Amino acid sequence: MAPASSKPLTLSLLGKLSLLLKLLVIAPPTLLINNLRCHLLALFRGASLKYYTLCAFNKFGLRHLTPLQLQHMKPPTIVYYKSWVRKQSIAAIKRLSTSNGTPKPEDLVLSELKVDIETLPDGASSLLWLGDRTKAKKVVLFLHGGGYAIPMLPGHINWCYRAYLLASPGDVAVAILQYTLVPHGQYPTQLRQAAAGLSHILSSGVKPENIIFGGDSAGGNLTCSLLSHLLHPHPDAVPITSLARPVAGAFLVSPWVSTNTSTASYKKNNGIDMLSTATIDTACGHLLPKDLTEEDKAWVMPVDLPQERQEAWFEGLDKVVSHVYITAGEQEVFLDQSVQLADVFKKANNNGRLDVKVEVMKSEAHDWILLEGENGHDGDATRRMRGWVKGLWGFK
């Protein structure tokens, strides 16, 4: 398997010139076409037009920019985390100091945020904490998406704050995994880091029933890989075989779980979704090493396996997790594979001990909860996620 790169890769001068050319020449007509297509298809299908402009912009970046170009345009995950925490904390403290009425719960939560980073054993990954991990009763391990090529976005951290910290202020802390992006490291680098993160949280004394983990898109892929690792320890990752109880839950938002780009939902939604056949084919080439075997695919792209093998692979999932929450949009290319994964989970664990909740929303395309966070909205997808967490842990 391909190890993480020991020599940092940066965008070359040629890469910067290429980026400038793409932004000046390719972007304007492409964005116009993307916007027209996305909005017309949404209108024709009776879907809400909200966020489809953002879909069109994301579609351009994901399709035409390389991982290094995308990373050149975004601050690293740790840099953005530090900036967000400090900015939100200072603003909340200021609002509280000038408020004459009852303090808002949101400001009380934000005012207590502090930068808290734990470096994991490999030295290249870390846990970025939101909330006080020394006082919190529950922990969410958050695995952000972005095709393994894009750092954490504002929408991710807003999502964590709104869906998890506000689910029960003071009771929940979120550990955001900062992991190695491509091309700096291919699979299974990220699985190794996610397993180390979960192992660290468990070894710190947090009980499995007080842990939820999950993520969106590539983060959903990493979530599925981590579930597989709990069932079948990957030889390159720290084993987690001593769970006294299953972890409380796992959430997979628009999960990327297959290399197959010829399903019906790909054909139907190529034009409206931010993702496309070409985008995923390219992303698979960046993530997956050339020597990936069919056996390895079970950990990283399980829906590529024959149906019988999928069910056999996930048999006993109820022993490592109690609740699974899978969401997808009717307008996204991953729809069929998300639904298939949910069906596999149910069929492989039909003893009633594993609760699998699946939501497919008509107006939504890929990763809608992220788009709500990007717009700073406490939208329907965010409220549904918060409701799932509150119900799972019995919060009022």
From TrEMBL:
Pfam families assigned to the protein according to its UniProt record, in alphabetical order: Abhydrolase_3
Domain Alpha/beta hydrolase fold-3: 140-369
Organism annotation: Cercophora samala
GO molecular-function term, one example from the UniProt record: hydrolase activity
Keywords attached to this entry: Hydrolase
UniProt-recorded name of the protein: Alpha/Beta hydrolase protein
PANTHER family to which the protein is assigned, alphabetical: AB HYDROLASE SUPERFAMILY PROTEIN C4A8.06C, STERYL ACETYL HYDROLASE MUG81-RELATED
SUPFAM superfamilies the UniProt entry points to: alpha/beta-Hydrolases
Protein's UniProt keywords contain Cell cycle: no
Domain of life: Eukaryota
UniProt KW Hydrolase keyword: yes
